[in-house]
Design goal:
Length: 146
Amino acid sequence: MKGLTMLRYAACLAREGGMVTVSFPDHPDVLTYGDSREDALAQGRDALLTQLMICQQERRVFALPSAPSTLDAVDLPMMAALKVFLHNAMVEKGWRKVDLARALGWANSQVERVLDPRYQSRLPLIEEALHALGKDVQAQVVDLAA
């Protein structure tokens, strides 16, 4: 996670009729649309979060962005990005939710919440879960491009 502040996914936008479709090269299964460019990108963010939940159910790695995008892009919120790293660490280690609950002494419902990309978890809980998997969280503040 060196220097990572959020996950930025390149988005491909196309106008079809009165709608704008959005797809993601890093997640070819994700395709959605909106009434405008802004709406399509917002719907794309929601679709990526839904894809994360599907990957969690199927215990598959959620692909990280392949390259920084200078085109249209969708940023996952910081908490959702941390949950991507938490989920991927679990998959890499071969852990199920019950394994994380056991390692932390948590109820299964706590693990469900800490992994849910739509639930606003407390940062210390995500850090604790990542530590149990041998990972550390580091933050970096960067200047915005002028």
